[in-house]
Structure formats: C-alpha cells, structure tokens
Amino acid sequence: MKTIDLRSDTVTQPTKEMINSISSAVLGDDVEREDPTVNKLQELAADMFGVEDALLVPSGTGGNLISMLAHCRRGDEVILEQDAHMYYYEVGGMSALVGAIPRLIKGYHGVFTGDQVRETVRCSDPLHYPPTKLVEIENTHNRAGGCVWTPHQIEDVAMAAHELGMKVHIDGARIFNAAVALDTDVKEFMKHADSMNFCLSKGLSAPVGSIMLGTKEYIESCRRYRKMVGGGMRQAGIIAAPGIVALTKMVSRLKDDHVNAKRLAVALTGFEGIDIDMDSVQTNLVIADVTGTGMNADEFVEKCKQNGILIFSFGPQSVRFVTHYGIESKDINETVLRLEMLLK
Prior knowledge:
The chain has helices at 16-24, 36-49, 60-71, 85-88, 93-96, 114-120, 151-163, 175-182, 187-190, 216-228, 237-249, 254-269, 297-306, 329-342; strands at 4-5, 53-57, 77-81, 101-105, 132-138, 167-171, 195-199, 210-214, 285-289, 309-310, 312-313, 318-322.
C-alpha cells in the first residue's frame, strides 16, 4: 500500500532539475560573498519582490530570528497574531535569544487590522512599558489553515505601525501560495512592509533554505546577525542552485496544490463526524475537527497512519492535511477512499 504523506509541504522532494543543478553549480565562499550561485539567487529574489537586497539563510525560523535581532533590542515588544508561527512554533527564540517580548493580537483567520494595532500599543511610559518596535504578519497563516493576507490588509496594518514608529516584518514562509491564490504579483505583498523572509523548502520543493528581503542597510545588519547565530555558510551554492529552480519553475504549479486541497476539504465535509471551516481553505492547508468521530486528534492520526495516510495533529481535536508537490489528484481520490473505509 502506497503511503500518502499529507503531513506538510516540508516533506517535498527536490525535482530532478534541482538535483542536477547542485552538481553543476559554480561555488565560492558565501561568507566572503564569493559564491556566484548564491549571489544569483539573492539577486533573483530581490528583483522578484522589488526590494534592494536579499540574503540566503538556512531556514525560515532562522530568518525570523535574524530579522528580530536586526529590528529589536532586548526588552523591546513585538506585536503578532496569537497563533503566529513565530510565537507558537519557534521554541521561544524571540524571548530566549532576542530578548523581545510578545504582545498578542487575536485575528480572524490569522488576520488583524491596523485599528487593532493602534489599540494594542500602550502610551509611552518607559518606566513601566516595553517600547513596541515591530509588528509581525504571517502570510499565509499556518494555524489559521493557510489563510491569506491581502496586500490591502498588509497596507492597513503597515500604515498604523509606521504611524507609531514601528517596523513591519512578514513571515512569508508560504508567500507564493498567497500570491497564487490571489493571482497577485509577490511585489504587492512587499510594498508596505519593511522586511520579509520566505521558504524555498516548502511548496517550492527545494531541499533547504529561506530568503530574507529588505533594504541594503537592513540586509547588511541581517548578514552580521546571520554570522552571529551560526548561519554563515561557505559553498552554499549547492543550496542556492535548487532555490533558483524553485523560483523560476515551481511557483505556478502551486495552484494544483490549492485545487487538491479544496477537493479534499469538500470530500471530508461529507464524512459524518468531521467538521471543516471551508472559508479557511484558501491555499494548500486543510484543518479538520474530528470531534464527531469519537476519536481525539492523536487517535485519528494513528488510525490514518495504519491506513497509509500521514497527517499531523493540530490540537486536541483537530488534524491538518497539507497538499504539495508529489501529491496528485489520484492521491486525493485514494485518501478519500481510505478515510471512507476508516470511518465506517
């Protein structure tokens, strides 16, 4: 029985073209800015997003950490959505390593407003309150089910943040999913933000790497902090080469993942005991409440595993399905058939 792996788009395998690009990559010392393949990837990314500069880092979590080090000082406050990846899944790095204090906002489908930012920022009182220096946006929002921030929503929050003297950082791990879902140029998401990082290793299927984006001054600061936290790499062109393929060949196919996710979500709603907020199924993630099946999330995940379907629990009663490169329409059909048998 074939295993159908719907745990995450991080399980994607690189394409043959990516593998071939590694062996033919021209290499140099990236810490010394001498790797031509890394330089080419960074220039490509900066041009795609309409920014001055870009920087290759090993991971999205590392990119978020480096960004906070560049924007904040110890004791500064960061405003972010209450289920944001930076707060929920990054091992407390913002406080443990940056020394920043999270200030949480409850969003709707992961999205909050400029007015909420204004209401959240406290009056200036340096003897009692930490200075608020950064607002963070996650696009698409993982725990909201892959929901999208529109460029207009980003502009609304950025206007409030900038009025109050704060910077705006976008955790754009799946920003190309957002762009494809809205049929929008990725430049539109960056117009009002001060920084962003996105993953090459999720839906774009590269094996390693994320890209940080911003002004030359900001990226120079990030380059220093990348070295400080151990992220400076040498012949990193072997990472950058698949990244170039990812950006030039793998973006448009993301719409297939969205179609498959929607098909799966619609089928799941037909099963007794499974509940899905269809408004949240906007990209390649599907969050399902399995309370009505009589199983908790861990039990449901284990039952699926026994039937060759790999998924993640997403809370006591919720599970997550993720479509990605390597999952085809026939795999969705097979998943639905197996779940039908499982739930009988």
